[in-house]
Amino acid sequence: MQQKEYEKLVKAKSPKSKVILPLIKAFFVGGAICTLGQGIREIGEKCLSLDEQAAGCFTSVCLIFLSALFTGLGLYDELGKFAGAGSIVPITGFANSVVSPAMEFKREGYVMGVGAKMFNVAGPVLVYGISASVLYGVIYWLVLLIGGKL
Amino acid sequence: MMLNHLGKQTLVFPSRPSVLSYASVVGPKEGEGPLGNFFDEIVPDDLMGQDSFEKAELKMLEDACDRTLSKAKKLACDVDVYLGGDLLNQIVSSAYAARGLGIPYLGVYGACSSMAQAMLLGAVLVDGGYADTALCSAVSHFSTAERQYRFPLELGSQRPPSSQWTVTGAGAVLLGCEKGLPVGITHATIGSVWDMGQKDINNMGAAMAPAAHETLKAHLLDTGRDVTDYDLIVSGDLGKVGSSILRELCEREGLYLGARYIDCGCEIFGDDQGVFSGGSGAGCSAVTLCGWLFSRLLSGDLRRILFMPTGALMSVTTSQQGESIPGIAHAVTLEVIP
Amino acid sequence: MIYFRAFLVGGLICVTGQLLLLFTDMTSARILVLFVTLGVLLTVVGLYQPLVDFGGAGATVPLTGFGYLLAEGAKKAVEEEGVLGALTGGAAAASGGISAAIVFGYLASLLFSSKTKQ
């Protein structure tokens, strides 16, 4: 049997993922996390009279704290099973991907375990996010330079 | 000249090495499954009071070996050779168990087919007169396999419906040359490695089914037997996806498996246990054999079975480098000796 | 009203992620990388700011918002400090979130252990 023919057989025999339900779940959980973020932001702006930038930072920190807590209690992965991208894509999912390896690898010690493995999953996000921002910054600088605005 | 060899890849054991004793130790989820009553021990907590899941896996294996030896009323020093396999890198669980047992040790690695590989080699040593007794084991643990092959436990991610659940459990069997015992090993077929280009690590059944198909074909051809000569043909962890592919592959060549074929991965968990395509892992076939299947052989419910677990022989590194997943299947014929 | 808009925008961004999960074989780590890079890119071409103005936290809380934060930070720092700002701006803007993740991650590893799933 050829590989192509076998691939067809595998496709036919493998169950299809449900589509509609996961999308709805992702929508509602993702939306709810963002709404919670909006609430925290308003508290920061109105009650703590933070400026826009500080309120954004306050929101991130609060959500990251909540995510770390729920991950620690073993609840965030349950949410992840239910919501999929709904709990992966928000900043809480980023925090979960930092906290979960930290917890997982503490048995290998606090330096080479927790310390080294903490960014096992989330490291690439920083590598690509920060690199992209630096690239943008350099291009923007060149544009300003050529435009004579510097 | 090969005296005890049939066809291309099947071994015959004229002395029929006997099964002296066997034992299985499983985790709580496996204990709640449909085969729960057949295991010797169901641990209430799969960390087993240890510092790490790796240590718990070792403890589970040690418990299974101890139970097997004490059932046969033997001490570790009475056993001539220990053959063990597991899924951790450098097959450490088996090596550390061997450290404790002090029995001359050969580590085997056939991924989830390790139990058959260990029994096959054990039968060769006993039948050839190189050992009077051989202890064979295989173990896997959900939480150690998960971190090695997938993600941290607390990472929130979804599993696709073709994915499988690693069985937490250890099975051990003691083979020996003593006569007068009810169950023995008569044949074994050494599988070759098959790779149909499958790369999806969330669909292991599809990667391993061709190997099971080839080994089954080779076994039947070499022995001149038919599917109906077996009460049961048992694969290890093809799961729902892989076993339905195996059925289809066999049917295309006129081999109808019907009710004579089951898969340990489909039997060990219930449909309500959230395991998608079924159980997997070296422990999956080991505990199903050392619990349910042996007890059915001893009760006379089954007279002859072909125990044929499959293994996926990739590593995390080869997967990340885009290599496809090679599969293997070894088969062992277990028979009630009249 | 802003709550409803945040819900809508955030939900839709997550739906995009779920579509990728369902129809590609991307792992969650790859999706996070894609989203943060996409966030930077959309900010650069000027498409993300309107989304933030409309959706508030719905656009800033998802990882694309992290990319937005990085890109805006780099831009502002370049305007103020020149080319060195390209290196410092992005990371500085995101430093609160990154440090929080490190500290809370470390604390969680001290307090909690991973548990087997059922």
Write out key terms for the chains shown.
heterotrimer, B: 338 residues, alpha/beta, Peroxisomal Thiolase, Chain A, domain 1, 2 domains, seven-stranded mixed sheet, six-stranded mixed sheet, 10 helices, 17 strands, C: 118 residues, mainly alpha, 6 helices, 0% strand
Give an overview in words:
The complex is a heterotrimer of chains A (150), B (338) and C (118). Chain A is built from eight helices and no strands. Chain A is an all-alpha fold and 150 residues long. In chain A, α3 (52-72) packs across α6 (91-104) and α6 packs antiparallel against α7. The longest helix of chain A has 28 residues, at 20-47. The termini of chain A are far apart. Chain B has 338 residues and is of the alpha/beta class. Chain B is 34% helix and 22% strand. Chain B has ten helices and 17 strands. Chain B has helices spanning 28-32, 53-71, 92-101, 114-127, 142-149, 204-223, 239-252, 264-267, 282-298, 316-320, and strands spanning 5-6, 10-12, 18-26, 41-42, 81-86, 105-107, 133-140, 165-166, 169-176, 183-189, 232-235, 261-263, 279-280, 304-308, 310-312, 327-329, 331-336. In chain B, strands 1-2-10-17-14-11-12 form a seven-stranded mixed sheet, with helices on both faces. Chain B has a six-stranded mixed sheet with strand order 4-3-9-7-5-6, sandwiched between helices. The longest helix of chain B has 20 residues, at 204-223. Chain C is mostly helical.
